[in-house]
Amino acid sequence: MEFIDLKKQYNDIAAGLGRRLGSVMSGTRFIFGEETEELEVRLAAYTGRKHCISCSSGTDALLMPLMAWQAGKGDAVFVPAFTFFATAEVASMLGAEVVFVDIEPGTFNMDPAKLRKAAERVKAEGRLRLRAVIAADIFGQPARNPEIEGLAAEYGMFFLEDAAQGFGGRIGSRAAGSFGDAAATSFFPAKPLGCYGDGGAVFTDSDELAGLLRSIRVHGQGREKYQNVRIGLNARLDNMQAAVLLEKLTVFDKETAAKNVIAERYSAALAGLLETPAVLPGYYSSWAQYSLLAEGPEEREFIIGRLKSQGVPTAIYYKAPLHEQPVYKGYDRRGDDLSASERICKRVFSIPMHAYLSDADIELITGTIAKACAEYRGDAHSA
Ligand SMILES: Cc1ncc(COP(=O)(O)O)c(C=O)c1O
Prior knowledge:
Blueprint: H1 6-27, H2 34-47, E1 51-55, H3 58-68, E2 75-80, H4 86-93, E3 97-101, H5 112-125, E4 129-136, H6 145-154, E5 158-162, E6 170-171, E7 174-175, E8 182-186, E9 200-204, H7 207-217, H8 239-270, E10 283-284, E11 290-293, H9 297-309, H10 339-345, E12 348-351, H11 359-382
Parallel strand pairs: 2-3, 2-4, 4-5, 5-8
Antiparallel strand pairs: 1-9, 6-7, 6-10, 8-9, 11-12
């Protein structure tokens, strides 16, 4: 069994994919061709945004808006303590100070009440300019983006939605990727919409920001080709990856719907045994991961071991909150409460989640977890 089954997905799309890749190769336009243009139009429409700027990775999709906003020294950038490293890395890379914000235990996403507290604390200290907040749509469920949008506006900050995991999710009729001054997504192969290498995109409604991002993406290019008007990057998405993504879009909604059915089946079978992920009313998740909470790290290891012995792969996202990563050693939380992120890292683990899981796979996974819990808790109680 695969954790995310890209082989079965490939079998589903092989014929169309072959045609699209063949067309790129015979056309020999590998950078900025028809496919990239079509993809940007399709993704902008998908998210309901005015602009989509494709780029080379989700990390660059986060970095480029911060570069455009000239975030740097003396700036505070608020990021969740529980997310993939890149969400914070981009701010540090530009010399800004990251301020870690705790998450809500049920959804794994940034807690708006704790964002307000942290913003008030930084404002009262007066040392840093409140510059931007980046909230990640963790495991596929959008963060409380409408509330965070409001808070960012209240404190005069930019809001960057990190939809690397959330693409395909929604809050009501608003798609992940439609929130904030800009939103970033990743097309890393295992992401909800993944390509066959690295890739990403930025979404925005601002013409000005879109222009800056298109310039930054190609070495700070000006109106003419070899004219450079600012410092930028080489952060283009290539046309082969755009072709892969266009083909994957043909099955994307079907896959996301199938994952939602599987998530419901997982939650129905596992509720009462382990803490199952909470999806807020009106929210729709793209299920980048299906993550459970064991009672503690020993029970988690026990369950993972039992699943492994049945050939079921698992993963731990994330073993440590970002403020405990070696590179942020010495991070001064200045009284901010980060306890939910710390606790969850000791309990969380993810089980296979993709559209091609069979009934037998689901039964094997849920049955093995149920047996492991009974065995562990029986043993723990008799010990
Ligand atoms: C929340 C989050 N942000 C950013 C990224 C970075 O994306 P990429 O790996 O495409 O650079 C990822 C994925 O790896 C992610 O999960």
